[in-house]
Amino acid sequence: MNTAIIGAGIGGMAAAWDLVKAGHSVTIFESTPIVGGLAAGFQEPGWDTSVERFYHHWFASDSSILGLMEEMGLRQKVVFRRPFTVMYHQGKFYPLDSILKALTFPGYGGFFGMVRFGLITVYLRYLADWKSLEKYTAHEWMSKAYGPGLYATMWEPMLQGKFGPHYKEVTMAWFWARLKTRTTTLGTYQGGFQAFADQFAEILRQQGVQIRLNAAIQEIQPGPQGKVTLQLADGTAQFDQALVTTSPGLMAKLAPQLPPAYLSGLLGLKNMGAVVLVLSLKHPLSEEGYYWYSLPKSAGYPFLALVEHTNFVPPEHFGGEHIVYIGDYLDLDHEYFKLSQEELLERFLPHLAKFNPAFKPDWINKTWLFRTNYAQPIPLVNHSRNIPAIQTPIPGLFFASMSQVYPWDRGTNFAVQIGRKAAALMLHPE
Length: 430
Description:
This protein is of the alpha/beta class and 430 residues long.
C-alpha cells in the first residue's frame, strides 16, 4: 500500500518503521526543516551534543522506545544516569530520589504522616488499577487518601504548577500513571535527542521511506475509490492510507470533512502549551548539582520548573557551557505567549539568585526561546470515554496523538507506543 504519514515526530517515524517493514511504500510529510517533533533540538558551534527545545529524558521503564531502539541497533547509545530532583518546602529544596533522603524530608508532618505517605504511594504504584481511579479527580482522591496536609505539601503544588487553573479537573488516573512508570534513573542519547531523531530518519530512508521536510499539509480529503487526498502548497497527492500525528485541533482543521461527532470529539479535548527559555551560562547555577527543581507557584516563582541540563549531561559536551531550562505549561491566552524573549528574560532573571545568590546577569552567554501550542493534554474525569478512535470515520484516514496515550503521560516512549498501535491498525483495519 502507498501510505502517507503527516508529522516526522518520534510517533510518526515509529509508525513508518512498522509499515515499511510490512511492505508499505511510506512517505512522511513534515512541515518544519527537521525531524523529531517536540523532541527536536539545536546545536551550537563547539557542542558535540544537541539541546532539546523542550526538555526531554527517558525513564528506565520506557520499554516501548528502548525496545524500538533495540530493533534498530541503537540501544547501546542510550546513557542512563541518576541526577538529583528536588522539592521545594518552606524556602528550601530537598532531594527525594532515595529512601534515605525521603525519610529526612520535613514536610510529612511527623512519623505518622511519613508512614501514611509511604503506604498510599506504594498502593498507587503497585496495587491500584487506573480504571477504578479515573472517575475521581486527582485533587479529590489525594486530598482524602493522603490527608489535606500531606496533599497540600507534596502533590497539590505539582498539580497546580502542571495544570494551572485546570488542576482540580484532572483525573486521578493520570497521576496514577506518573507514579506507576517513572524512575529516578533517567536516560538520554549520545549526541542528544536530535541525534537520535536524525539517525532514526536515516535508517528509515535506507528502508525506502521518503521524508519530505518543509512540506506542510493544507487539507486532507476523501479521495476516489477509498483513497485519501492530501493538499500541499505545490499540488495534491493521493495515498491508499494516511496517518496524522498532529494535535487534535490541527487534525480538525486539516480534515474538515470528518463527521461532526468525530470533529466535536477532537475539539472537545483540552491541552496546554509550553513556553521554555533556554540559557547558556558561564558558571553552574546549582552549587549542589541539582538537576530538576519542582517549583510551586505559591512560592512566587514565575515558572513551573528550572532544569539544569548540564547536571544530567555534563558541560564538556557543550564546550564547558552550563545549560539551564526555565519552563512552564500554560493556557494559550497566557501573556508568556506574547512577551518577547527579552521581556521573558527580564521577568525570570531576578529569581535565578534564589537558586544561587552569587548569580549575576553577566553569567549569561546566550538565550533561546521556544513555544508550542500543544505540549500537555488535560485528561478529565472518565477521559477514556473521550479519546478519539485511531481509525477515523473517513476510510483510510488514521489519527495518533499525545491525547490518545491515556492514562499515560505525553513523552517519546508513549509516542512510540501510539504510533506502532496506529501502524498495526493500518495493516489490519477493523
